[in-house]
Amino acid sequence: MKVVFYIMVLQYFLMGQATVLPESTVAIVNGMAISDDELNKEVGKALPQTYYHATLNDEKLAKLKEKALQSLIEKTLLYQYARSQKINVSENEIDDVMKTLAKAYGSKKVLEKAFRQLGFTSKTFRKAIERDEVLKKLYKKEVEVNISDDELKAYYDKNRYKFKEPEKIRVRLIHVRNDPTDPKGKQKAKAMIDEAYKKLKEGMDFADVAAQYSTAMSRIKGGDMGYLHRGRLDAAVEDKAFAMDVNSTSDIIEDTIGYFIVKVEDKLKPKQFSFDSIKKGLRSDLKKRYEQERKEALLKKLFSTAVIVK
Fold first, then answer.
1. Is 215 exposed, middle or buried (0-12, 13-18, 19+ CB in 10 A)?
2. pLDDT tens digits for 290-303?
3. Is 198 exposed, middle or buried (0-12, 13-18, 19+ CB in 10 A)?
4. What is the pLDDT of residues 36-93, one digit of tens each?
5. Which of 13, 56, 64, 301 could form a disulfide with 51 if both were Cys (CB 3.0 to 4.6 A apart)?
6. Residue 284: is its pLDDT beyond 90?
7. How many CB atoms neighbour CB 148 within 10 A?
8. CATH classification of 167-269 is 3.20.20.370, yes or no?
9. What are the two backbone dihedrals, phi and then psi, of residue 169, each rounded to the nearest 5 degrees?
C-alpha cells in the first residue's frame, strides 16, 4: 500500500498538481491531501453529539474516525467538483461570514480565541469558511429542490393510505406475569388473576383492582394504557380487545407470559388526515428525501472516477 501511495503522489507531482502533503496524511483525494489534523477536527465535531467521553472506547473511536474520514472524502470530492464548475467564494464573502461570526461570539477577539483553541490559524479558518461556502453554493445549485403545492398534492393523492391514523382503542389492563424461574409461577399467577377477576365481578373499580393485582408498570395508573393502535399489545390480548365493545371487560385471557384482563374504555375509528394538515410536514420530509437522493447520485458519479488513496 505504501508503494502505491508514493507512486500516486509522484504521479500528481509529475502532472503539475500543486499538492502539499502535511506530515500526517490520512488520505489523498484526486491529489488533495486530508491531514490527520483535519480528521481530528471532524471527529471533534461529531463527538459531543454522539458519545459521552466516558463511554467512548477504542472500538467506538475507530468507527467514529472511519465515519469522519468518509465524510471528509465526500466533502473533498464535492468541493473539487464545485471548483471545476467555477463555483467560487470571494474574499469579501469570507469577510462577511467572519463579521457574522464575530457578532455571534461578541467580538472579533473572542472569535479568534475560539478558533485558535480548536487548532485553526486565521488562514486555515478562512480556508475552512471558503470550503463551507463553496459547498453551500453547490448544494443550492445542484442538490436543493423546491416542491410546489401541486407536486405535494399529487403525491398526497397517490399515497393517501400513508396519511391515515389507524383505528385506536383506549384500554385498561391487568397483567399478572408468570415467573418462569418459579416452578409454581404459573399456579401463583393463575390464583392472583382469579382473585382479581372475582373482585371485578363483585363490583370493585377496574383501576383499583389493577393497582392492587397487576404486575405491569401500568398498575401505577390504574392499568391505563392510553390509546393504542394494533401492534402495541400482545397478540392474544390485542385480538380480543379490538373485538370488544366500549365499556366492556374481558374474561381472563391466558398467554405464555401470564394472564390478562382487559377493559375497553373508548374506540376511535381510522382517520384520514387532510392535505392541509400534513402539507408542511410532507414538504419537509420529501425535500430531505429528494435532496439526499440527488446528493447520493452526485457522489456516486464522483466516486466512480475518483482516485482515492488512504
1. middle
2. 999 999 999 999 99
3. exposed
4. 888 988 887 777 555 555 566 788 888 889 999 999 999 999 999 999 999 999 999 9
5. 56
6. yes
7. 9
8. no
9. -130, 145
Q: Residue 61 carries which side chain, given as an amino acid letter?
A: L
Instruction: Indicate the DSSP class of residue 181.
Output: T
Q: Which amino acid is at 83?
A: R
Query: Grid coordinates in use for 205?
Result: 373499580
> What are residue 266's DSSP bridge partners?
170
CA distance 306 to 14: 18
Q: How far is CA 192 from CA 34, 51, 185, 249, in A?
A: 67, 45, 11, 17
Contact 171, 266 (CB under 8 A): no
Q: Following DSSP, what letter does each residue of 207-229 receive, concatenated?
A: HHHHHHH--SGGGGGTTEEEEE-
Topology annotation, domain 2-146+291-309: Triger factor/SurA peptide-binding fold (1.10.4030)
- In the numeric block, the cell 478562512 is attached to 126
Does the structure show a pLDDT above 90 at 271? yes
The pLDDT of residue 41: 84
pTM above 0.85, yes or no: no
Give the C-alpha separation, 310 to 63, whole Å: 15
Rounded Cα distance, 296 and 307, in Å: 18
Cell numbers at residue 28, please?
A: 489523498
CA distances from 22 to 14, 25, 66, 111, 299 (A): 18, 6, 19, 26, 26
* Domain coordinates in residue numbering, the chain: 2-146+291-309, 167-269
